[in-house]
Amino acid sequence: MHKLALGIDIGGTNTTFGVVNDRGDSVFEHTTSTRSHDTPEQLVDFIYQTLSKYTLLDQLCGIGIGVPNGNFYTGNMEYAPNVHWQGIVPFRSIFAEKFQTTVILTNDANAAAMGELQFGAAVGMQHFVLITIGTGIGSGIVENGRIVYGHNGMAGEYGHLCVVPNGRLCACGRRGCLEAYASCTGMVRSVQELDSQHKKTSVLSTIEHPNSKDIVEAYKHNDTFATEIIDFTVHMLGNALADCLCFSDPQAFILFGGYARADIPLTDMLLYHMNKAALKVYQNKADILISPLHDKNAAVLGAATLVFN
Amino acid sequence: MHKLALGIDIGGTNTTFGVVNDRGDSVFEHTTSTRSHDTPEQLVDFIYQTLSKYTLLDQLCGIGIGVPNGNFYTGNMEYAPNVHWQGIVPFRSIFAEKFQTTVILTNDANAAAMGELQFGAAVGMQHFVLITIGTGIGSGIVENGRIVYGHNGMAGEYGHLCVVPNGRLCACGRRGCLEAYASCTGMVRSVQELDSQHKKTSVLSTIEHPNSKDIVEAYKHNDTFATEIIDFTVHMLGNALADCLCFSDPQAFILFGGYARADIPLTDMLLYHMNKAALKVYQNKADILISPLHDKNAAVLGAATLVFN
Q: What pTM was computed for the model?
């Protein structure tokens, strides 16, 4: 009989929750619109009722939650910019009261890092960094097999490294952050903000609001401007990974989401730029890997893993 | 009876070694010119003979060594730019063979961090970063009370964060590193490289080769150009500390050496710039402290501490 845990991935748009066993097999999974729940308590009630219907409640050994700006120490979601509940939301205590079980909460990238460590690209690794690419850039740092939380529980915000002093305005209100350049949103901004003589003749100029998939598609069809955008985006990320080496000297960076899912030679390009920019003692040492958990729900899996660890 | 350990701080210019007890009291200390020893083996012999004279050899429970570019895992000094022995020097095995005792080697900033943890500003802290300011900028990161070594043993090179893309050439051969701006050497470079209308009327223009102490002295006498240099240097370091928060979210940064010893309002200025540049979740959380171990030999103390831990 395998142990079962509830893993929950709360995002600004959707919340996915699943019951997972300690081998990483999904027993049950459901997705609900986060915004359809007016209060955090209503979301928690909804999850409780759903599991109750399937008589799964009694079998859970605990609940793991991944949320944006999740604080492992406090169990709160703190000022998450893309979620409709503002300020501090004490999810850990709300869940614990409703479910009367152990609840562990962390940020979504840390949860994904735990998923990689247990079931993905990082099995057997002691030191690695999980980078999530999407609307923003998130990161989960693992050192000696454990998530780095820091003093206040908020370590690992690689997306907000300043890579261009006084550069692009970031969603966080500051300027020049990595995620303003190398997230999917940042890549899309480059359509407007990158100078190029090939812009006018690019297929991207014929699309009203091109998204990152359009850019990748145009790149695959050898569109020159799209190629410049991809090169620029990857160059910015590669340089930032060289900076990350100075901090944690990891065995590997594992990329999850966004254009990491696209069929482009991303790891080769990133390795080139990272090693070119890296301090000599770090050159050609760290791997760059694409998460093998894109088809599973890595965030739910990782959140559940928090319970098993 | 207290335990005794030999702590050794090997630098490009001098090597200081001392016998320290587990309360941090120095029982014996000696300094020798590193360059006066043609080979690493000759330095090790010299230390052995010196301790032998004072009949201290039999009392040692181990040896801790701090060296530039020291690798904790391999026990080697790897390509240290300012030491006259080039390439890889296997100090751990040379010492172990000669002394027939336990030898632990790490980089000098990590050793200093251990000293702070055991006897200095970081007593009782779980998460902090020690920053050494001198010819370069070094750092030792402590997470959960343990030094962060990373996969290859070389984590924590904050001095080589890229803070100005394509900026000043650094001693490492790359451009725009923090230490090219915020080390003592970087501060001195600003005398030449910083534009100012006050340069000609500054007392610094009357000194043939001003050093960082001259700049601090001129600053204390309200020299406008010297004030601009200090402001610029501290601003660069403060911005970089804001980046460091994104990685390790420490309780405090502890500054050791160089202008951290000078009687200037360094911590207030740094706190201002760091918090202004920091991501909201990190603002006004981390302390900035000056090491209280400047009068003791923190590097020797820290190296010896490696043995006690």
A: 0.92
